[in-house]
Amino acid sequence: MKNYLNRSIKSQMEHWMYRGKVLILYGARQVGKTTLCKSFLEPLGEEGLYLNCEIQSVQSALLPREPTLLKRFIGDKKLVVLDEAHHVPGIGEILKLLIDTFPDLQIIATGSSSFQLASRSSEALTGRALTFELYPLSYVELGQAYAPHERLAQLDNWMRYGLYPDIAFAPESDARMLLDNLTSRYLYQDILEFENLKRADVLLQLLRLLALQIGQLVSYHELANALKISSQTVERYIDLLEKAFVIFRLQPFSRNLRSEIGKKNKIYFYDLGVRNSIIQQYQALDLRSDKGALWENFLVVERLKYLQEKGLRPNRYFWRTHQDAELDYIEERDGQLSAFEFKWQQKPVALPKAFATAYPGSVFSLVHRGNFEEFIEDGVD
């Protein structure tokens, strides 16, 4: 089985190589950032340099703000990868100095938590850096390793155990152990380390509550009451989890109707295996009461990966009214609204009348097991 897959984002990064920009690659731990970066280094041989910034000696060597000393450490290289660069104090100023002093040097910096590398580099690197995000493997990328019918046969397992690179190809027993190790604390290590959270237990309890609410409207007030903390603290923790690439929010679409819900968000997990590990539910899909929610999460995140691959950035929403009319997912691009309803099984579904009346000209599609590949591969352009 082919365990290394060409990641879709690689071609986008290659397009910007050697054009005077620092490339910053964000993504959760164990999502494949190091492997991707080493694939850039491999053909360069001695002209490439990999530096693990979690190592103290590497941090110390990068600290001097003297170009001569930095050049002596880096040597005559064409490409330098600074892996987990957020561990280096003042990394933004160091990257700025390197790119300004050695404009022919290509630098790729990675970080497990966007809030760390961003806060330490964004101001210093204004106009000098481009950011990219690496997600768990996509259903499309797995087409490199599996024939179409094999991918469909694996869909149930991937919705249970997720698509982290080491886990997507692992036997079921190994997948559970790898996931449980990942979610025990390691996935949130950067949050706990850099944000100095005093209540790590509350963070994990919040994740469990969110895991049980995928596809539902999330109330910060209700979460705060359940956890006995303030709504502001809930929002802060959710923001940190989003910036650490554990979860992401989808906002409500609300413009024309007073009955539209306009405040509460939906929250999804970047990886379903992580979600299932948090609540310790790995049952087969046919035995699960949350099958519909898993399917919705899967489609929303796979669509996100598709949009990234195509370089598209539409506005993304869900839609619901106080009378419970709803649409699972909406994209807005160039003034065009595309609405989608997600169903595990194909069944007759119509565009809600209230939405059709308020937003004439909208395109509507039902996405189900029989046609979902069009939604996450060919897409709706």
| Whole-number total of structural domains | 2
CATH fold description of the largest domain = Arc Repressor Mutant, subunit A
CATH class bucket of the largest domain: Mainly Alpha
Write down how many β-strands occur, each being a DSSP E stretch of 2 or more residues.
Answer: 12
What fraction strand? 15-25%
Q: What's the arrangement of strands in the largest beta sheet?
A: 6-8-7-9-10-11-12
The number of helices is 17
Rg from C-alpha positions? 22 Å
- On the 0-100 scale, what is the average pLDDT? 90
Topology:
Layout: H1 9-15, E1 22-26, H2 33-41, E2 48-52, H3 56-62, H4 67-74, E3 79-83, H5 91-101, E4 106-111, H6 114-121, E5 129-133, H7 148-161, H8 165-168, H9 172-184, H10 189-194, H11 200-211, E6 217-218, H12 220-227, H13 231-243, E7 247-252, E8 265-269, H14 272-279, H15 291-310, E9 315-320, E10 326-333, E11 336-342, H16 353-358, E12 363-367, H17 372-378
Parallel strand pairs: 1-4, 1-5, 2-3, 3-4, 7-9, 11-12
Antiparallel strand pairs: 6-8, 7-8, 9-10, 10-11
Helix pairs in contact: 5-6, 7-14, 9-14, 11-14, 12-13, 15-17
Commentary on this structure:
- With 381 residues, the chain is an alpha/beta fold.
- The chain has 17 helices and twelve strands.
- The protein has helices spanning 9-15, 33-41, 56-62, 67-74, 91-101, 114-121, 148-161, 165-168, 172-184, 189-194, 200-211, 220-227, 231-243, 272-279, 291-310, 353-358, 372-378; strands at 22-26, 48-52, 79-83, 106-111, 129-133, 217-218, 247-252, 265-269, 315-320, 326-333, 336-342, 363-367.
- Helix 7 (148-161) packs parallel to helix 14 and helix 15 (291-310) packs parallel to helix 17 (372-378).
- The longest helix has 20 residues, at 291-310.
